[in-house]
Amino acid sequence: MNRVRKVGGITIGQSPRTDMVPEILEILGPQVELIEGGALDGLTRAEIEGLAPVPGDYVLVTRLRDGSSVHIAEHHILPRMQAQVDRVLVAGAEVVALLCTGEFPPFRSNRLIVKPQVVLNHFVAGVAEGRKLGVLVPAAEQVEQAYLRWGPVGKEARVEGASPYQEMAQTERAAEALHAWGAELIVLDCMGFTKAHKARVVEIAGVPVILPRAVLARTLAELL
């Protein structure tokens, strides 16, 4: 009988991520248990509002347990993320995955830590050569930092803001803009985007669309 493999999943918001984890486990299969931890777990709304970014901060967008979304500054939550990494390792995680495509410094761990942004960047770079790359990010405040990330990848890049935590119409408008621009490949640069978002963007733009949570899940499957 195959033993259950344990993966730690660290969200920058609150756990459980019922909007994300089921789609990841669908790829990983029934023999994998995902131990979740959230950087904002245990905080009140007022405490979370105190983590909001100011000009110059690295902006992250995430989901709370009630389904709402918030903007936070990365530097506020790094110690809380480390605490969650420590917790899932004690719980038996064989590998730890960050459930966010943001850029993060190293975390202390005696197990592998998979950063979706690093995996995603290399994956996209491997297929985007010579092609116009369209990118969707969750907030307008992230567009500038997204150009720094994706500008050197492919022939040229265009970034549009569309939150996966708001109505689908936002994503549809962004997909239409990228289609009109002539995008030949699109990356949905947030773990909050779902299979439904990908299907709609494919329908509108008619080009390959990369979904980070699927890329992460398949990477984890290879490591287990």
Describe the structure in brief.
Helix content is 39%, strand content 22%.
Features:
single chain, 224 residues, Rossmann fold, 4-stranded parallel beta sheet
Please tell me about this protein's structure.
- This protein is of the alpha/beta class and 224 residues long.
- It contains 8 helices and 10 strands.
- Strands 2-1-5-6 form a 4-stranded parallel beta sheet. A 4-stranded parallel beta sheet has the order 8-7-9-10, with helices on both faces. A two-stranded antiparallel ribbon has the order 3-4.
- The longest helix has 17 residues, at 74-90.
- The radius of gyration is 17 Å and the shape is globular.
Strand/helix succession = EHEHEEHEEHEHEHEHEH
Helix % is 25-40%
Number of strands: 10
The order of strands across the largest sheet is 2-1-5-6
Provide the β-strand percentage band.
Answer: 15-25%
Broad structural category:
alpha/beta
- What value does the average pLDDT take? 95
What is the count of DSSP helices, taking H or I runs of 4+ residues? 8
Low-confidence stretches: none
Terminal-residue CA separation: 16 Å
Rounded to an integer, what's the Rg over CA atoms? 17 Å
Number of domains: 2
Please write the CATH class name of the largest domain.
Answer: Alpha Beta
How do the helices and strands line up, and which of them pair or pack?
Layout: E1 5-11, H1 21-28, E2 32-38, H2 45-49, E3 59-63, E4 69-73, H3 74-90, E5 95-98, E6 112-114, H4 116-127, E7 132-137, H5 143-150, E8 156-161, H6 168-181, E9 185-188, H7 195-205, E10 209-210, H8 212-223
